[in-house]
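Take a look at this chain, tokens included, and explain the fold to me:
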Amino acid sequence: MTETVTRPRAVVAKVFAIVIALIGAAYAWGGGELAALGGTWYFLITGIAVIVSALLVWRGSAWGGWLYALMLAWTWVWAVHEVGVDFWTLLPRLTGPFLFGLFFLTPWYRDSIVSGPRPAIACKGIPAALALSIAGLFVWGFATGDLHEVRNTKGLPAAVAQYTPAAEPGEWTNYGNDAAGTRFSPLTQITPDNVKDLQVAWTYRTGDYPPPEGPNRRFEVTPLQVGGSVYFCTPRNDIVSLNAETGKENWRFNANVNLRGVTGSAACRGVAYHEVAAAQQDMSVLNGAGHALCARRIIGPTVDARLLAVDAETGEPCTGFGDNGQIDLKQGLGTVIPGYSYVSSAPAIASGNIVIGGWISDGQSVDEPSGVIRAFDAVTGQFAWAFDMGREHDHAMPGPGEEFTRGTPNSWGPISADDTLGMVYLGTGNATPDYYAGHRRDFDNAFAGSVLALDARTGERRWLFQTVHMDVWDMDVGSQPSLVDLNVNGETVPALVQLTKRGQNFVLDRRTGEPIYDVRELPAPQGGVTPELVSKTQPYSVEMPEFSGLDPAKPTGIDETDMWGATPFDLMWCRIKFKEARWDGTLTPPGTDSIVFMPGSLGGSNWGSGSFDPERKILVANWNRVPMYLRLLPRPEADAMGLKAADGSPGTSVGGNVPQMGVPYAAGLSPFMSPLGAPCLAPPYGMVTAVDLTTKKVLWSRRSGTAEDSGLTLGKTLIKSHLPIKLGVPGLGGSITTKSGLVFVAASGEQSLRAMDLATGDVLWKGRLPAGGNATPMTYMGPDARQYVVIAAGGHNLMQTQPGDYLVAFALPKKD
């Protein structure tokens, strides 16, 4: 029997029917395309079911509600079967359908029914119960984050060694605290019990944000602390000294950098500190304080390719260093287009020499400056040696009319040193450009993607270990090689731990470069535009946990079920794109078709590097799992797109496009993201993991950061979620560890510095930052006997974090 329908409510029901019919049509259209590519049939089947449900609702049939309820039950079963019970992976699969399903519980729907069995309590209960389960899932995600996190319940391993710092135990005298790059502090004032009481002690602003001109420049520095002062470089390479207790400026040296051709991505991540031996001090030249000028000095690089030396006490230039306190690093490089070559990491001091690598612009052309590694006398600035991969055994400066070999692999990451062995250790990148290898020379292939050990006095190669063969994925080694002694079969072995963008973590004997933990050559994917050059195998550190984010239970590490998005439509779009692309597993060779590659250009591990507890032999590292989408563009297509190398003129910049001039292909590269700016891979995207280097087992692994400052990108606007739910956000920057059992890390998209328990990975404290903390923190004991933790908060354009120019120090409250 037909019942009278309240007209306004019938209209609402018909509008709803139109809306879900359109949704069903989109599901069916995209679902059909996905099914044709060999993907899931869920979206096609569900789309048809929703369309039929909409037609029944339009006609006032109660069967529309029954069918929609059945679809919800089917969706729930399908989703849980695909990904299990995990908040973030279920979110785009369930939230949309169930939110629309709430309409069937309203009077508008109930009063619109004119035929069919009215929804009984049981029928109403289906969407209600499933909606409640969504709410429960939300609460579960808020509380726990990730069912797949590794948690430690056994406590910390016992200390098996005693750490003896080379400098004062409360100071931070190198980029990685020590020359070994451990990022470990023996300080114990801040503990897991009292860390919750940390508060802002002081804040310093460099004056670089908002930018006075040009693009915003990254502030990614890790300061040094020596005596009563904190030293660092600003985004424009000014060198600054602050009072370590108050944060007040002692002095500032204006570097007067020429920013022509230099992009906003250019960064100064650190400076070096050097004390001149008493016998070498020139007492005839005094600083403003009446002491020998530059007896203690700060060495800093610039983005316009200079090396500066200033007095640590006054900031005056070291007139006896180079040319009145500076060295032109373009010497010997031939033609250098502005912005193509500079030093992005802190210089290293080893055996009396300043050792530097250099950043070379990514992907512009084959004719870029040399990636030569150089050393200069730390007192006089006189050239000491060069390691040019194209003329390996000639360590001299090129003669008149000559230059260092152009386009060679470079070393842009932090450098480590062992003065006892007389060696420096560097990670290398590949020969420009990144995504094509047909033009590369034998020495390019030999040195790329490697850990390189050089004699610190002469520049002669001592050993080389390659982490990736024939790199066409930008898998350059950007993490600092970290030096730690390990007990192996009852013998103390001087080891080197190298984290990589690939997520492979190699443990080598730093005397010889031979693996301490097993490395095997395993079969690698083949194909691409130069299949004859692709390596048949790649090295895998099979005894160490990997930081790749790939699932060893899946044949290729990830599959269609790992796709994600902000909504069901994003999810469907990402699945279609994944099926359209070629993915044969990690290191799938690029071609003129699209490929997915993972870990992507961010890593794995990037320049932030790991931190090491040398007493308990624990490695802590934050790492990323963000896939990229890559296609090689034939030169005619690239030319039609207007891709060309930057020329350094006003209005041009280096690093945006990857035109790859001089080879047959440009490269179209982007993060694998949905149209709404949501990642196409399910969370997490950033992890913090602790590894026991003695047992080679993961101690714990936790998501890095919450969704509080993450969100969707609409146009160029980031709409933040403001949800403090554990997400695992990608990031750049590193961690530090302390003897008291704490890990300090920011790095992620969450605008906070976090203190984690070294034993469990639990977050014990958060300090909100005024901008993104995409840098590595440091800690020191101040003149007032308080331990400070300092982080640069400058944001990062790739991470879409809030830009700024802040250096923020935290400490425990002063005692009365």
In short: The radius of gyration is 29 Å. The chain has two domains: 8-144, 184-550+586-811.
